From TrEMBL:
Sorted UniProt keywords: Oxidoreductase
Superkingdom of origin organism: Eukaryota
GO molecular function, one term: oxidoreductase activity
Keyword Iron attached: no
Pfam families for this protein: adh_short (PF00106)
Identification of the protein by name: Dehydrogenase/reductase SDR family member 7
InterPro entries xrefs: Sc_DH/Rdtase_CS, SDR_fam, SDR_family_member_7
Keyword Oxidoreductase: yes
Length: 284
């Protein structure tokens, strides 16, 4: 075989493997490779102090538990103190070597800006350091597939997730060379309380939908594991979702024109079904 043919064969093999991962795995290619050949979260977060916001439910709760398994010291924040205490108890159940003061329950309302600094002081008082979320440390930002593409009938959600990318890509540039890693985590549909609490077009009204075990979604545990793999391997961005979100995100990133044509053919209902992964919301 001459050199040219060899290069062609290698290239075609490479593309085929990438395509296979894109269509068969539940994450993007780099996250898949990191999960199989990269650093394991267990080694990376052992003994580290990690502040988890939104830790009272959903992906945040699952992240806290996965970190407990990795033997990290935890700061759990959200608005509901009782729920945080429950998560703390469950974390210590998962990893009995975590002592009472290895897990700090720190109720916090993110929009109460005044409370941020006193909260950080409390953490530094208890642990003397903060490894994930602070200067010379690491940020893991829970964005969404909706931070990468538009999702119909989720305007404010899509807008706020896109805003996270703008904010943290800016911060990434500001902090070049300061030993700060930022990982944007973009899950597709995940089992969580989001459908219960999501707003409708009427002010104050909530969707109040229970998710069903038959829904085609990723579990919060799997999502949390992949998030920690991405963070342990210092990936800048990571996507995790069941089909067909990952191939669509790739198409949108590399062939936006084709993606918009396909999006138009698929129609708004199809996107909404992918978001909810079932037909119950079809009537509206
Ligand atoms: C990730 O971000 C860092 C800056 O924080 C940059 O140096 C690096 O090239 C980026 N990696 C990729 C794969 O884009």
């Amino acid at each position: 075989m001459d050199l040219f043919s060899l290069v062609c064969v290698l290239y075609i093999t490479f593309i085929s493997v990438c395509l296979a991962i894109i269509f068969l795995a539940d994450s993007d290619v780099l996250t898949f490779i990191s999960a199989h050949f990269g650093k394991a979260p267990e080694g990376e977060y052992d003994g580290k102090v990690v502040w988890v916001t939104g830790a009272s439910s959903g992906i945040g709760e699952a992240l806290a538990k996965e970190l407990a398994r990795c033997n990290a010291k935890l700061v759990l924040s959200a608005r509901r103190k009782e729920e945080l205490e429950r998560v703390k108890t469950e974390c210590r159940g998962i990893n009995p070597s975590l002592k009472d003061d290895d897990v700090l329950v720190l109720p916090l309302d993110m929009v109460d800006l005044e409370s941020h600094e006193p909260s950080l002081k409390k953490i530094l008082n208890q642990f003397g350091k903060l490894d994930v979320l602070n200067g010379g440390g690491q940020f893991g930002i829970v964005s969404s597939a909706a931070g990468k593409v538009g999702v119909p009938n989720s305007g404010t959600y899509t807008a706020s997730k896109h805003a996270l990318h703008g904010y943290f890509e800016g911060l990434r540039m500001e902090t070049y060379g300061q030993n700060i890693d930022i990982t944007m985590l973009c899950p597709g549909p995940v089992f969580s309380g989001v459908l219960q609490n999501a707003c409708t077009s009427k002010p104050g009204e909530k969707v109040n939908q229970q998710q069903l075990p038959t829904d085609k979604k990723m579990t919060a545990e799997r999502c949390a594991y992949l998030c920690l793999v991405a963070m342990a391997n210092r990936l800048n961005e990571s996507w995790m979702s069941p089909l067909p979100v990952i191939p669509f995100l790739y198409l949108n990133a590399y062939q936006p024109y084709l993606a918009s044509k396909i999006g138009k053919l698929m129609g708004k209902q199809t996107f909404q079904k992918i978001r909810d992964n079932r037909d119950t919301l079809k009537k509206d």
